[in-house]
Amino acid sequence: MPVNKIPFGIPGLDEALNGGIPENNLVLISGGAGTGKSTLCLQYLVNGAKKGEKGLYISTEQNLADLSKQGEQYGWNLQELVDKNLLRVVYIDIIREDFVFKKIKDSIQDFKPNRLVIDSLNTLSDFTASTDFARQLYMQRGTMSPTISDKVLPENLTENLLKRKIMMAFLSEIKNTKTTALLTSELPEKGDYLSADGVSEFLSDGVIILNYLGVGLTQFRSIQIRKMRYSNHEKDYIGYDLKAGIEIQKDVV
Ligand SMILES: Nc1ncnc2c1ncn2[C@@H]1O[C@H](COP(=O)(O)OP(=O)(O)O)[C@@H](O)[C@H]1O
Ligand SMILES: [Mg+2]
After folding, report:
1. 62-73, pLDDT tens digit by residue?
2. Residue nearest atom 24 in ligand 1 by C-alpha distance
3. How far is the CA of 151 from the centre of ligand 2 (A)?
4. Which positions ≥6 away from 153 have C-beta within 8 Å?
5. For FRET with 250, which of 53, 168, 235, 239 sits at 20 to 30 Å CA-CA?
6. What pLDDT score does 51 carry?
7. Which residue minimizes the CA distance to atom 13 of ligand 1?
8. What is the CATH number of the domain that holds 53?
9. Ligand 1 centroid to 90 CA: how many Å?
10. From ligand 2's centre to the CA of 2, what distance in Å?
11. Is 70 exceeded by the pLDDT of residue 225?
């Protein structure tokens, strides 16, 4: 069966992906601060909305007002798309809100988007490392009694293993929602992993990396498609600019 592709609507990038992201893939967008991860995600939803596809932007960092301000920089009117029910922004205050994963799943079920963005995944996975959260979760599932939880958790479950388990369960639930999703991950300047938590790159169907390199007064920005299941794709670095959103530099491709 041919794989249906969901295009970004960005000339040069869609060609590099052989048409776009295979439908129902979960794709990690990794890169340092200011490389344009949120811009790329927003652009993906705005261009989908132009074709009548519903986009849901779940953010742990920016609310609708913040994102609208960012969109304005690129000439996009987000409020208009929200009014047409083609775009919804759900802001999650990771510090103050409980049941964060439930809120995400409920908002997907409620809005039924074609395109989904979760920005950022590492804020979520950091949050799962909180022992209180873990204890709550395991007690809800009935796998741990409140009386023994203090003893059992630190001995049997390392924070890292717990984080991986929770992220695996969460990503597989997102996969089951049948959306085509971008998940952002902020990377430190130097590191061995493709995602901040070190596991999401293995669980996701695709990994797109945004690189920034400053040499003297010159800066180079490049996109690299590191992995894309169910599709052939460009393997080389692709130069881009941040102008009216992400723009691929044709002469570099
Ligand atoms: N009007 C604009 N024109 C061109 N580039 C812009 C404009 N506004 C912001 N930017 C660039 O976009 C960057 C922010 O992109 P963003 O998508 O928020 O990055 P990330 O989510 O990876 O941190 C800024 O650091 C700036 O370089
Ligand atoms: Mg961002």
Report:
1. 999 999 999 999
2. 34
3. 38
4. 131, 134, 135, 138, 144
5. 53
6. 97
7. 34
8. 3.40.50.300
9. 21
10. 33
11. yes
Any residues with Cβ below 6 Å from ligand 1, and which? 31, 33-39, 73, 242-243
DSSP 14-65: HHHTTTSEETT-EEEEEE-TTSSHHHHHHHHHHHHHTTT--EEEEESS--HH
Nearest residue by C-alpha to atom 3 in ligand 1:
243
Domain count, the chain: 1
* Residue 147 pLDDT greater than 50, yes or no: no
Judge whether 144 lies within some domain: yes
Full domain range(s) for residue 233: 5-248
Write the residue with the smallest CA distance to atom 6 of ligand 1: 242
For residue 39, the CA-to-ligand 2 centroid distance in Å is 7
Task: Indicate the pLDDT class of residue 148, thresholds 50, 70 and 90.
Answer: very low
Among the bound ligands, name the one nearest to the CA of residue 42: 1
Looking from the CA of residue 41, the nearest atom of ligand 1 is 17
* In-domain check, residue 189: yes
- In a domain, residue 100? The reply is yes
Q: What residue owns the CA closest to ligand 1's atom 5?
A: 242
Residue 204 CB burial class (10 angstroms; 0-12, 13-18, ≥19): buried
Of 7 and 141, more confident:
7
Q: What is the pLDDT of residues 95-135, one digit of tens each?
A: 888 788 889 999 999 999 999 999 999 888 877 756 555 55
Phi, psi of 30 (to 5 degrees): -110, 145
Mutate to test the pocket of ligand 1, among 39, 59, 213 (most ligand atoms within 8 A of CB): 39
On whether residue 18 sits in a domain, the answer given is: yes
Q: Please calculate the CA angle 121-27-129 and round it to the nearest 5 degrees.
A: 25
